[in-house]
Design goal:
The strands form 3 sheets. This protein has a 6-stranded parallel β-sheet, with helices on both faces. It has a 4-stranded parallel β-sheet with strand order 3-4-5-6, sandwiched between helices. By secondary structure, it is an alpha/beta fold. The longest helix is centred in the N-terminal third of the chain and has 25 residues, at 52-76. The chain is built from 15 helices and 12 strands.
Length: 349
C-alpha cells in the first residue's frame, strides 16, 4: 500500500482525482491515504488461501470483481489505471484490459509477483522498483524506484549518530505484521552480546500479536529497555533515530533504509515468491550498506556477532549509512508520476 499511497499523494497535489480499488482485506490498510481518495471495495480472491471449496469459488469471485470494476469504469472512465500487485488488483486491471483503458503496473520487488507477471504484457509499461527486474518477453520495463511516503521523505538523509558510549537505538521490524523468526532469534542474539554493549541498547521491536508476551518477557529478563508492539506507525522517525536496523527485506523497508540512510542486517523471508526479498537486498549488500543473513543461517550467535561488529565499529557503521544513502531514489515518486501521465496521454514510454 505504501507506493500506492505515495503516488496518490503526488497525483492529488497535481490536481488529479484519485480512486483506490481494492478488496475488503486491502481496505483495512488504507488509513494513511488522504481522505479525499475514494476507496472502492471490489470482490477478489486467491488460490493461495482456504480449502477446496474456497479455491473452487475463486474464479467466480474474480469474475464478479472484474465485472463490478468494469461497471464502475464505464460510468467513471478513468484516464489511467495503475496496479501495484497482489490479487486485490486483479479486478481493476482485468477491467482496464477489457475496456482498453490505459494502464501500467508498479513492481516493488526484484522479481515480478504472480499477478504482475500475468498482466505485464497486457499493460503499457511495468514501472520497476528494483533494477534490473526480470520481465516476461514482450513486457516493457521502466526503472523508477520505489516511491516512499511523505513521512519518509521528510527524514531524507537524517544525520546519522554513530554508535558510541551512550544509549543506542536498535529497531527490529518484520514487515507490517512483524515476523516470528525475528521474535525468536533477535532477543536471543541480544542476550549473547557483551554486557556493556547490551545495557546501552534501546530496542523497538515490531512483533506479531501472538508473540508479544514472549518477546517482552525475553527483554525484561535480560534487563534491556524495549518497546514491543504489533505495529509502529512512526517507523520513519524510529529509523532516523536508529544506530542499526534489523529487518526483513521487503521492498518498502529497503527503500526506507536508502532514503533515510541506516546500516542494516537483513534476513529475507525464505518463503517469498521466487526469493524476491533476497533480490531486493542485493543492492544494499553489494554497496556495503547491509549484512544479509539467509533465514536458514539466522542463528542467535551469528546475528549477535554482526550486531556487535557494527555497533562496536563507529567508522564502519557510518560508511554503511552513507552507502545506503548512495542508493536512494528520492525522485521515485516523481518518476512514477511522469510515467503515469505519459501512459494516460498515450505517449511513448
Amino acid at each position: 500500500m505504501f507506493p500506492a499511497q505515495a503516488l496518490a499523494e503526488a497525483m492529488l497535489r497535481k490536481g488529479w482525482r484519485v480512486k483506490l480499488s481494492t478488496d475488503a482485506r486491502g481496505a483495512r490498510y488504507t488509513g494513511g491515504f488522504p481522505h479525499v481518495v475514494q476507496i472502492e471495495t471490489v470482490k477478489s480472491a486467491t488460490f493461495a488461501r482456504g480449502g477446496l471449496l474456497a479455491r473452487l469459488a475463486v474464479p467466480f469471485k474474480l469474475l464478479a470483481g472484474i465485472l463490478g470494476a468494469a461497471r464502475a469504469m464505464l460510468s467513471d472512465r478513468p484516464d489511467v489505471v495503475v496496479g501495484f500487485g497482489g490479487y486485490p488488483t486483479i479486478p481493476a486491471l482485468g477491467a482496464a484490459w477489457l475496456l482498453r483503458r490505459p494502464s501500467l503496473l508498479h513492481e516493488q520487488n526484484g522479481v515480478l509477483g504472480r499477478v504482475n507477471k500475468l498482466f505485464a504484457r497486457r499493460v503499457r509499461a511495468v514501472a520497476c522498483g528494483v533494477w534490473p527486474t526480470e520481465l516476461p518477453k514482450g513486457a516493457r520495463g521502466v526503472h523508477v524506484g520505489n516511491p516512499v511516503r511523505a513521512a519518509v521523505v521528510k527524514r531524507e538523509g537524517a544525520p546519522y549518530i554513530p554508535p558510541g558510549d551512550y544509549p543506542m537505538s536498535l529497531v527490529v521490524v518484520g514487515g507490517s505484521q512483524g515476523a516470528r523468526i525475528l521474535s525468536e532469534v533477535v532477543p536471543k542474539a541480544i542476550a549473547l552480546l557483551p554486557e556493556d554493549l547490551r545495557t546501552r541498547l534501546r530496542v523497538a521491536h515490531q512483533a506479531r500479536t501472538e508473540d508479544l508476551d514472549q518477546v517482552r518477557e525475553a527483554y525484561d529478563q535480560m534487563g534491556v529497555s524495549a518497546e514491543v508492539e504489533p505495529f509502529f506507525v512512526n517507523i520513519p522517525a524510529r529509523f532516523a533515530d536508529a544506530q542499526l536496523v534489523i529487518s526483513r527485506a521487503g521492498a518498502s523497508s529497503v527503500a526506507d533504509l536508502t532514503i533515510i540512510g541506516r546500516p542494516s542486517i537483513l534476513i529475507p523471508f525464505a518463503a517469498a515468491t521466487a526469493d524476491h526479498q533476497t533480490a531486493n537486498a542485493r543492492g544494499l549488500v553489494e554497496a556495503g550498506a547491509a549484512i544479509l543473513i539467509p533465514e536458514s543461517l539466522s542463528e542467535p550467535q551469528t546475528i549477535a556477532e554482526h550486531i556487535a561488529a557494527i555497533l562496536e565499529q563507529p567508522d564502519a557503521a557510518v560508511k554503511m549509512a552513507h552507502a545506503a544513502l548512495s542508493l536512494a531514489r528520492v525522485d521515485a515518486t516523481q518518476r512514477l508520476v511522469d510515467l503515469v501521465e505519459r501512459v494516460a496521454q498515450k505517449e511513448d514510454v
